[in-house]
Amino acid sequence: NAVFIDYHEEIALDRPREADNRMTVLCAVFNEAKRRGQITRNPLDGFERAYVSDRAEIIWTEADIAKFMAEAPLELQQALILAIHTGQRYGDLIRLRWADYDGAVIRLVQSKTKAKVPVPVTAALKRMLDGMTKQGPFILTRADGRPWHTERNDKEMGKAWRRHMDAAGFYPKPFEQLSKEEKQAFLHFNDLRGTAVTLLTEAGCTIQQVCSITGHTMDSATRILRHYLAST
Fold first, then answer.
1. Of 120, 126, 123, 122, which Cα lies nearest the Cα of 108?
2. What is the pTM of this model?
3. Which of 40, 53, 87, 224 would staple 196 via disulfide (CB 3.0–4.6 Å)?
4. What average pLDDT values come out for the chain (232 residues) when binned by 10 residues?
């Protein structure tokens, strides 16, 4: 049981809904195995779901970003800037190629929605991209130039991100010692998508334009903006 819980929690750090979906499929498989008498019990019966709908309202503030950037390795700073200026998901960002950027627009196919999305590049993002050293086909790489993902593993940047969050004092105690509920209360990488919603809106985009870029639903983007406006 502990193996499945650890697997669920690892994926849920950046993709809680994906983690829940995988557990749901596994749970169904175990139920069928139990029905056939191949196992005596389903180890995932009553597993605790990681996704909480109102997490969409959590965003990174200017103070959070400044705190993270103060001592962050350059490769993580680049990831944060790319995330808040595009609003894309973790898995899509680590797979963005230089070929997807033409100097004015980043074009990608979102892995979740399968939508072909042109993302206009802001002046700040353009300065970063044009000033970066290309260390291979992918925009985001580790310090040694290796991509953040392999065919079997795309979690390495997430792990490096959490290590820095720990070091920067974002958690009251080491992240691994937090309960699942406590972990959900703190900022995650994908919460930068909510920050992107607010930045795009402040830049003059309509809610429809924001959703066409980030892939949020209208309801989700509206909740983010409502929460953001209330807090500021």
1. 120
2. 0.77
3. 87
4. 77 78 88 90 76 66 95 97 96 97 96 90 96 96 95 92 96 89 87 92 91 90 82 64
